Amino acid sequence: MIGTEHASTCFYLPTPPKLTEKWNHLDTGATQALIELNGNHWRKILTIMAKIVVNEQDWRQYRDVHLLKRDESIAIEAKKLSSNATRHIICGKESTDALMLNSAEFVPIDMQRTTLLKHPHQAIYLCPYLDYRQFPNKQINLLRHSLGLAALN
Question: Assuming Cys at both sites, which of 39, 58, 88, 128 could form a disulfide with 134, CB separation 3.0 to 4.6 Å?
């Protein structure tokens, strides 16, 4: 688990980032250190995460200062849902399969029937992998709307 242990929002990803033994999500500059260790790929992942959860309009500041420190965590190669989280954002087919979730039990969150699906009775969302080609701003705003958050500009 990466991030706050008792986070209400948990993102599920299939592959861990490289981290040093001294890396700690609570450290000042932890996000930047993670990006420096892992490159542009993880910058994109953390940017999309920040855009999904930020309450303020400045997602950049949230990503760099608050992400994974306030109310988010990342579960890597998870086999079960986090017992602490109340919102589960499952990223990509590999994570969905590892959790043994049946996408047929989920419903589209929008009329365009994008790849964003929600469990009908729980706050479990099946989403594309956190990459701009698969998860553009339009879909980020659709998910934000389903989470009860305002669209980002």
Answer: 128
Cα–Cα separations (whole angstroms), residue 64 to 3, 35, 144: 13, 10, 20
- Indicate whether this model's pTM tops 0.85: yes
DSSP-assigned beta bridge partners for residue 118: 107, 125
89, 11 Cβ separation under 8 angstroms: yes
Q: What is the pLDDT along the chain (153 residues), one digit of tens a residue?
A: 999 889 999 999 999 999 999 999 999 999 999 999 999 999 999 999 999 999 976 899 999 999 999 899 999 999 999 999 999 999 999 999 999 999 999 999 987 777 899 999 999 999 999 998 889 999 999 999 999 999 887
**Strands laid side by side in the 2-3 sheet:** 2-3, 72-76, 9-13, 87-91, 124-127, 117-118, 107-108
Specify the residue for token string 């948990």. Answer: 10
How many CB atoms sit inside 10 A of residue 75's CB? 23
